Amino acid sequence: MSKTSGGLRRGATAFILSIFALFTVACGSSGDNPNVQPVISSNVVQTFTGNYLGSNDLGDNQFATVNMVVDPASQINASLRVSRVLAQTVSPGGYLLTGAVDPDTGAFTATTTDATLGVITISGTLPRGNANAQYQLALRGQTFTGTIQAAALGLPTVANNGGTATLLAGGFVTVNSFTPSAGFNTGALTNNTSGLTGYSGTGLNGVDTVTIVASQNLTNGNTQDLTLSAMAAATQTLTVGQTYIFSTATPNSGAKLSLVEYNGITPVKAWTAGTGTTGQITLISRDANGARISFQFNNVVVDTNIPNNAAVGTFSVSGEANIGIANSL
Length: 329
Description:
The protein is mainly β. It contains no helices and 18 strands. Helix content is 0%, strand content 50%.
């Protein structure tokens, strides 16, 4: 899908040059089953009560998803989630929006105000039945077009530069070992059962990729993202059971890892698999419902591509990650 104006961009980006991740979270419901399609009222006038899922391409490999609940009073509670993989311009995590829908036409608007982004608005017309519809996401003076549909139909697929994807969310990261060097100066990597998002499928430049992003909030108020990716070579597809090796000679394929600490939208500390790093990711399983990987990286180093990077030290980590399909939430 397309955006109606230029994509958000920021100068500092993480190392991954050909992936994107996206994620969504469930938001509160009105008390009804949140995964039902909009209902038909007794007077044969269709109301729009129910749960809807939407997705946006924000450009520059950044994506957003919307999980919206409309209650019987036509009030909206929505959760906007923004991926943070390549072009990090919007803080990770959720933005909660509230608003209302016209019960006759389906026209809706929901907003929130963020200290960094200012006013965030989603608006459009909800679809009837099994149809989908376009909506607009407006933030920072730009507007992006997305697709929304009943949650029972799943999360709409987002295409990026000709690619297609399955957006993933939910699951776990189990850290089997984590060994930082002296002076390592961000939160330790630990088991994570929330804040997981990801992507499985063909993305930028037609590269088949499984990416998992594990986000956690640190005690200092910053956010930390661990990103793991297995990427097939160009024109090839990932194979279950195969181990993909990290190599600086193949920046657009193989195993990838980055660890970034953000203050708001600014990366302040960043590490990456780079010169002197050894690492691998094994694709344990992959199907329409998600993916599972094991990973091992040694001597992950400070990312010299991040301006004013305050990161110190190196680390080694191993573990396993499992991520499920986003619309299962």
